[in-house]
Amino acid sequence: MPIIKLVNAEKFYDNGPNRTWVLRRVNIDIAEGEFISIMGPSGAGKSTLLHLLGMHDMSWSGEYWLYDQPIHKLNKKDRSEMYKKYFGFVFQSYHLLDSLTVYENLDIPLSYRNIRKSERDSIVCDALDKFNIVGKKDLFPNQLSGGQQQLVGIARAMIARPKIILADEPTGNLHSSQGKEIMEMFKKLNDTGTTIIQVTHSETNASYGNRVIKIADGWIETA
Fold first, then answer.
1. Is beta strand 195-199 parallel, antiparallel or unpaired with respect to 164-168?
2. Domains, the chain, ranges and CATH?
3. What would the pLDDT profile of 41-77 be if each residue is shown by its tens digit?
4. Could you tell me the pTM of the whole model?
5. Are strands 18-30 and 211-216 parallel, antiparallel or unpaired?
C-alpha cells in the first residue's frame, strides 16, 4: 500500500495564448521506507514535483493521496497540519527564518509537536553537535556561509524525525566530505524506516537510494 500516490498530476503556466506545461500526467506510487531519487535535466520539473509533494504548491490538477488522505481536497489549514505531522523539507535555497538564530530555527519543527521545552533543548543541542554547528547556535542566517546555512537547513528537516524527508539538491552547497556525511545520515535514517525523496543531479547521491524516478519535459520516463 503506497503512503504517497499521485494520479494524473499536471501543472502548467499560461503565458498569453501559450501554455507551458511543467508536469504532464504524473502517476507515482511511493511505499513507506523507500529512498527515491528524482533525476533529469535542468527545467525537467524535478523541483516542481518535489514542492507539489511537500504541499508548497497547490496550483495543479489531479489527485494526491498521503496516508489515504486526499490532499487535493483539503483546505490550506488541514494541509499545513499534514505537512507538520509527516514532513521535513530540505530547500535548495535554505529557507531559514532570518529573524531567528540557528538555535531557534532548529527549535521550530519541535515546537509544532507536543514536546516539553527541556526535551526540545536536549534535541536541539544534539543536532548542533551532530552537524558541528555548536559554535553557530547564536548566529543569524545572514551571518553564515551558504554551506553553513545548508547544514542548518538539513538539521532542521531531520530534527523532529519526520516520517518523510523531501530534499532538493541537499548537498549542492557542501564540500564533498560534508556531502558524503549528509548522505550517510540520510541512509541511516532510511534504514530505520524514514521515507526519503531527493532531487539530485548526482549519480553518487542517487546510489544511496533504492529507486530512481527520471523526468524530462514534465513527463515521467521511468518510475
1. parallel
2. 4-222 (3.40.50.300)
3. 988 999 999 999 999 988 999 999 999 999 999 999 9
4. 0.92
5. unpaired
